[in-house]
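From the methods appendix. Each design record in this collection lists the tokenized structure first, followed by the designed amino acid sequence. Records were kept in a plain field format so they could be parsed without special tools. The example shown here is representative of the layout used throughout.

RECORD:
FOLD TOKENS (237 positions):
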């Protein structure tokens, strides 16, 4: 364990921590099932979902995260599922699902606007998010939150090396840094491994790929509304 001091820099994940994201993907998957079900050689909706999830997972090292990678995975899974019966019209419908997901308005999670505005005068705030650069930039700008952040980092993978590099570049001491996010796999474990602290704020839906467990010692907040009090009174001292 590294020696901690009072937190002066708060890292915030964006998707499913500051604004809703995964629920949009889930709606898109439902639409995908609707388009594919009639011509599926795979049978029921559950098999279609599994095929899409598997394709997305296998593509992660190549295409990374975000709607673009998800759209390619939908097309690839559709080709596989429909057993050579994929029509141009179906490809169109699938691509449209992806385009609509890109265009969805940003909806902040309850309490975020107040909490971010409240923390900004007292802490250095850094947004650390992964996904499509263009899409994340649009969401950041649309969120109205950017002015409260000292730095915004869109990265391709949330692993220990990337966190270490980002903190180094921003001259942040891990001993005074806490990362706040909804994903144990992306926002908690790699951050703990570089000697910083993490707070888990679970979202209502967890993407299968992000499921991971910690040893129970990580602080978990039911809502981001609890963050200012945790920073003031909790382990953050
Ligand atoms: Mg997230």
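DESIGN:
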């Amino acid at each position: 364990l590294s020696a901690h001091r009072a937190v002066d820099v708060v890292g915030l994940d964006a998707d499913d921590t500051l604004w809703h994201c995964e629920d949009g993907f889930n709606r898109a998957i439902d639409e995908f099932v609707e388009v594919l079900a009639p011509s599926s050689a795979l049978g029921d909706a559950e098999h279609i979902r599994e095929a899409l999830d598997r394709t997305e997972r296998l593509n992660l090292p190549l295409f990374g995260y975000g709607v673009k990678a998800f759209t390619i995975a939908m097309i690839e899974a559709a080709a596989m599922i429909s057993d050579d019966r994929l029509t141009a019209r179906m490809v169109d419908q699938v691509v449209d699902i992806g385009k609509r997901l890109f265009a969805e308005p940003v909806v902040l999670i309850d309490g975020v606007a107040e909490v971010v505005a409240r923390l900004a005068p007292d802490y250095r705030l850094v947004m650390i998010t992964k996904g499509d650069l263009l899409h994340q930039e649009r969401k950041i700008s649309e969120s109205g939150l950017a002015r409260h952040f000292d730095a915004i980092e869109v990265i391709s993978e949330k692993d220990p090396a990337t966190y270490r590099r980002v903190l180094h570049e921003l001259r942040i001491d891990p001993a005074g840094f806490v990362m706040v996010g909804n994903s144990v796999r992306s926002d908690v474990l790699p951050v703990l491994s570089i000697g910083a602290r993490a707070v888990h704020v679970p979202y209502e839906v967890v993407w299968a790929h992000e499921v991971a467990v910690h040893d129970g010692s990580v602080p978990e907040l039911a809502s981001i509304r609890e963050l200012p009090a945790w920073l003031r009174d909790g382990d953050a001292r």
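APPENDIX NOTE: The mean pLDDT is 91.
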